[in-house]
Amino acid sequence: MRRLASIPEALVGLGILAILAAMALAASALFPGDPFAIKGAPLLSPFQDWSLPLGTDRLGRDVMAELFHGARTSLAVGLAAAAAAIAVGAVIGTLAGFAGGIVDEALMRLTDAFQTVPSFLLALAFVSVVGPSLTVVVIAIALSAWTGPARVARAEVLSIRERDFVAGARVIGMHPLEIALREVLPNALAPVLALSSVIVASAILIEAALSFLGLGDPNRVTWGSMIAEGRTVLRSAPFLSIVPGIALVLTVLGVYLAGEGVVEGTAVRKSLS
Amino acid sequence: MSRAFLLLRRRLAGSIFVLLIVIVGTFLLLEAAPGDAVDAYVVSTGGDAGLVEAMRQSWGLDQSAATRLASYLWALLHLDLGQSVAFSRPIRDVILERLPVTLILMGASTALSFGLGSALGIYAGARPGSLRDRFLSTASLALYAVPGFWLALVLVIAFAVDLRWFPISGFETIASGKAGFAHAADIAHHLVLPVTSLGVIYLALYLRMMRAGMAEVWRLDFVRAARARGLSRRRIVLAHVARNALLPLVTMLGLQSAQMLGGSVVIESIFSVPGLGRLAQEAVALRDTPLLLGIILVSAVLVILINLLVDIAYAFLDPRVGASEAGA
């Protein structure tokens, strides 16, 4: 942790993420009630009325409240989709690498197939077939994001599976599936987890793009739907699309910076030991 | 030549399996969608239960899932993607009509991001750790975090609404009567903003990859040898360091094609560019699931073809690739 603090980029990234997490947690306390509720005159510019610091949108809703509640959706979707993708990818990659032969071949062709289909199109098709809700959006994003972790886990497992402790587990009569999931998988996890920042960032971006096209959860405020809403009054009130966009850029940047910092910090530790 | 051919044959065999999996996947999604083609037809025309039953029978929708998958495959083998309910035309014709626009958009975006990205990457990587390197690295990370659809809106506000330098939307001036060079220039004028919005994120990616690759190559012995031989710095940077760092970028070119196709959905929707991406968005809005899945299939084929091309290019650029297979 101290080493992390010596990398300025990591510090900035973690700072942004901390602010964001605070925004998400405080959303209900600071802005209780429905963020979709009408609070004032429509299309109020920012910094005019200090009870509505970022102004109001086309229907008179508080932009600041929407921004806070949107942080919650973005973070939740990003973290949930990344966790699901890494869990599924790690298991599939471990099974492929550990089993080898036809199982490996079949699972890797499956991975190829999911990488061949553009991930945004797949998410689009899945949401439009099943219907938009927060869970469906998370599954839709994880559906194409698991391929990266699967490939990395498989490569790592290939180098682990000939080690002595695996042979030892075999000798004491452990079931191969148990060896794969309880002995090999945890040892292959580190490089897979290094992918998490990229996956969280792309999950947040895909969620925003889906909401922008009107395929997000209709009962939740999202930054993507705020941008889409602002787009209808792009000429007269451009701030309505610009403000949530800046929040989005800062969030993704924070995730990248923090992720790079953590990888760099742990790499330094490795080379020192 | 035989080396590239062997590689190509092996990749083609793998690609057919991959394509089969994609086809089964789209079929399953089609099955999961509520309602079928007859429901969609009856909604627009009306009809009683007897007509519905007769139509299901004549379209083969009363058969088992396995039989329908077989006939789906049989139809695909004849390049028949089915009928679009929303456009009342064969899906294949609708897609083929939109495909060239997307290919132009993607080609231009790839050229911009790869060309400018690798050039700036060489500029930054020529002196790792220098001021310009730090500036370009930070700037590229910031660009990498910008969502394409938001950048598109900001560009529209700045360059189409305020400055009026570029048109707000469209692919060409409608019924302009332009031909030849003037027509091409008109399209290019319309595509400046979409191409920039689509390409900038990849520009940042190629810049970062090039820079990181060069930083690695600088440490290798042959670079020191080149220095010892007294080659000029310019020659070392371009002919030795940059050249060896370029290969991973070529691989990335193939991997990114799928992402770029996905990104074109939002960009084409914003700029009303009549390509495949906008068609996908229209298919969603008009609840035409077979059309959407047809687009997914065509995109998968496109991605496979692009990756095959990249593999061939790679085999020519790197003599080590496929050498062991040719020898065996």
Plain-language structure description:
Chain A is mainly α and 273 residues long. In chain A, 75% of the residues lie in helices and 0% in strands. Chain A has twelve helices and no strands. Chain A has helices at 2-5, 8-30, 63-99, 101-116, 119-130, 134-145, 147-160, 164-171, 176-193, 196-212, 223-231, 239-272. In chain A, helix 2 packs across helix 12, helix 3 (63-99) packs parallel to helix 7 and helix 3 crosses helix 10. The mean pLDDT of chain A is 85. Chain B has helices at residues 2-32, 37-45, 49-58, 65-77, 91-125, 131-144, 148-162, 180-217, 221-228, 233-245, 247-270, 276-285, 289-317, 323-327, and strands at 83-84, 89-90. Chain B has a two-stranded antiparallel sheet with strand order 1-2. The longest helix of chain B is centred in the middle third of the chain and has 38 residues, at 180-217. Chain B is globular, with a radius of gyration of 24 Å. The two termini of chain B are 15 Å apart. Classes of the chains: A mainly alpha (273), B mainly alpha (328). The A-B interface holds A 109-110, 112-113, 115-122, 124-126, 128-130, 201, 205, 208-209, 212-213, 215, 227, 231, 234-235, 238, 241-242, 245, 248-250, 252-253, 256-257 and B 14, 17-19, 21-22, 25, 29, 32-34, 141-142, 144-150, 153-154, 156-157, 161, 255, 258-259, 261-263, 265-266, 269, 280-281, 284, 287, 289, 292-293, 295-296, 299-300, 303-304.
